[in-house]
């Protein structure tokens, strides 16, 4: 499924079997011929993984989210930014992109949280963003702001940012879904939608979500 150089080519499937307050446990899943070869591994002890948030109080996490929430202006979004994934052998160099984002002004709200797959066509996504931004400018007399992970997350502190990601999503006025062929296949994209649906009623979620299909085949993937 993955190219030879991709790190995920050698990943093993695991099943979450226990969830506790600070940790969760997984065990490997084997199928077919491999299950007989690795039966001893299946009987081994579970692997425990710490939760990102740990036992930190909700107020502490909210304060951390307020201090780290950033946005990127439409004028700073380029085709180069929208190209390339964040991880894997073809990953873009994102170390310098954090400087493109900025802290929010007092009372400012981010217009769009961008939910998308970095494996979809960056050029097409940029076209859709340009059309959306021009329409937004016509309606409100200004260009929109966005939350984009590649620019708004300090990759050297990614764990700190990810544990408050649900707060980032809900802090934005809209969840903008740029849906291409790979979007429905990405667990991270599904999780972002799950966050929205978990915090608001379905009818309100429909009002907050903006769905833009990148091409006709994406509609087939959704179906």
Would you write up a description of this structure?
This protein has 223 residues and is an alpha/beta fold. About 6% of the residues have low confidence. It has a 6-stranded mixed β-sheet. The relative contact order is 0.13. Helices cover 37% and strands 20% of the residues. β6, α4 and β7 form a beta-alpha-beta unit. The longest helix is centred in the middle third of the chain and has 19 residues. It is globular.
Blueprint (SSEs and pairs):
Layout: E1 14-19, E2 23-28, H1 33-37, H2 39-42, E3 47-50, H3 58-68, E4 70-73, E5 102-103, E6 110-116, H4 122-140, E7 145-147, H5 149-152, H6 158-162, H7 165-171, E8 172-179, H8 187-199, H9 202-208, E9 209-213, H10 216-222
Parallel strand pairs: 6-7, 6-8, 8-9
Antiparallel strand pairs: 1-2, 2-3, 4-5, 4-7
Please compute the radius of gyration using only Cα atoms: 20 Å
From the N-terminal CA to the C-terminal CA, the straight-line distance is 22 Å
Strand order of the largest sheet: 5-4-7-6-8-9
Continuous helix count: 10
Please state roughly what percent of the residues sit in beta strands, choosing from under 5%, 5-15%, 15-25%, 25-35%, 35-45% or over 45%. 15-25%
Any low-confidence stretches, pLDDT <50, length ≥5?
31-43
* Structural class category: alpha/beta
Number of strands: 9
Task: Summarize the helix and strand pattern as letters.
Answer: EEHHEHEEEHEHHHEHHEH
Largest sheet: 6 strands, mixed
Shape designation: globular
Mean pLDDT over the residues: 79
Portion in helices: 25-40%
């Amino acid at each position: 499924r993955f190219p030879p150089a991709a790190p995920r080519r050698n990943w093993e499937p695991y099943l979450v079997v226990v969830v506790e307050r600070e940790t969760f446990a997984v065990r490997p899943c084997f199928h077919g011929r491999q299950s007989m070869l690795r039966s001893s591994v299946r009987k081994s002890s579970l692997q425990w993984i710490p939760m990102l948030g740990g036992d930190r109080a909700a107020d502490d996490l909210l304060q951390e989210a307020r201090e780290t929430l950033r946005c990127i202006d439409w004028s700073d979004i380029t085709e180069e930014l929208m190209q390339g994934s964040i991880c894997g052998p073809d990953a873009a160099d994102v170390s310098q992109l954090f400087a493109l984002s900025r802290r929010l002004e007092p009372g400012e709200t981010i217009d769009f949280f961008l939910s998308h797959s970095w494996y979809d066509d960056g050029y097409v996504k940029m076209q859709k963003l340009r059309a959306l931004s021009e329409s937004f400018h016509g309606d409100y007399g200004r260009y929109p702001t966005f939350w984009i992970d590649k620019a708004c997350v300090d990759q050297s502190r990614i764990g700190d940012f990810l544990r408050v990601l649900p707060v980032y999503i809900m802090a934005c006025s809209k969840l903008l879904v740029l849906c291409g062929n790979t979007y429905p296949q990405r667990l991270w994209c599904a999780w972002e939608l799950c966050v929205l649906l978990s915090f608001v009623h379905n009818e309100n979620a429909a009002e907050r979500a903006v769905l833009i299909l990148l091409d006709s085949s994406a509609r087939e993937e959704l179906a």
